Amino acid sequence: MKKGYVTEIFSSFQGEGPYAGRRQIFARFAGCPLSCFYCDTSYARDPRQKLCNVLFLDKKTRIKRNPISTNAVIDCIKELLTPDVHSICYTGGEPLSSAAFVKEIAAEAKSRHLKNFIETSGISARAFASLADYFDFASIDIKLRNHGAVEEKDYDRLYENELECIRSSIDRGIETIVKVVVVKNTPVEEIEGICEDLAGLDVKFVLQPVTAPSYLQSANVVPSIKELFELSETAGLYLHHIMVIPQVHKFMHIC
Fold it and tell me: Structure pTM?
């Protein structure tokens, strides 16, 4: 049995993408090698966090010491299950940074007839392929150059891994969501290039206007409605399922 580092486990409503509003049990894995300027879970970037916070349905938070075992995570999931739960959401941080641990948890959840949903930045196509067979849904981010996720010299490699994760997900029959966070003055040509690369693939494509963290509230980073219309229209030249969806949980003031 493997052990790994988890930042928090809790039940909430999905706040992003086409499954916004669906109840999920979230396992937020520790560690992320990216540095996106808009990150709203920067507290989860440390790969060796000492403690895992588990918010149970009685609203009480219980602390578990990391590293935590697969069985301990599954026990928390079992305690958080409610009749309306859609799936178990493996998020981060970056779950692919803990691929073997995530795979073991997902396999156990699958054996209990639970659906698995992964949210990933697609940092490693190899890591994604190692665990993909246990997932029903995959939400894969494509980072733009202006996100600052990686140094410019490493961007093309990140992008190729993201595309390979998307192809791998589709090949395995996983319902695949591609999400792109867009900021003010996002180049239309960059979105068009991405959509050209995705043309012909069966994906749900989500343009997500950035939600500025508190320290960026005064910065002019949120795209205008006019920009969002233009980006959506551009995507529609290549893809069939295009959505513009903000982070709904921010408006609901929930996790």
Answer: 0.95
Domain of residue 235, residue span: 3-252
Length of the chain: 255
Taking alpha carbons only, the member of 210, 207, 213 closest to residue 184 is: 210
Q: What is the mean pLDDT of the chain?
A: 95
3-state secondary structure 180-208: EEECCCCCHHHHHHHHHHHCCCCCEEEEE
CA distance 178 to 191: 12
Encoded amino acid at 19, one letter: Y
- What's the structural domain count of the chain? 1
> Do residues 57 and 80 touch, judged by C-beta distance below 8 A?
yes
d(CA 82, CA 89): 14
Q: Which residues contact 185 (CB under 8 A, 6 or more apart)?
A: 223, 227
List pLDDT tens digits, range 12-29: 999 999 999 999 999 999
Complete DSSP assignment for 45-110: --TT-SEEEEE-TTS-EEEEESSEEHHHHHHHHHHH--TTEEEEEEEES-GGGGHHHHHHHHHHHH
pLDDT tens-digit profile of 222-246? 999 999 999 999 999 999 999 999 9
Residue 196: which CATH number? 3.20.20.70
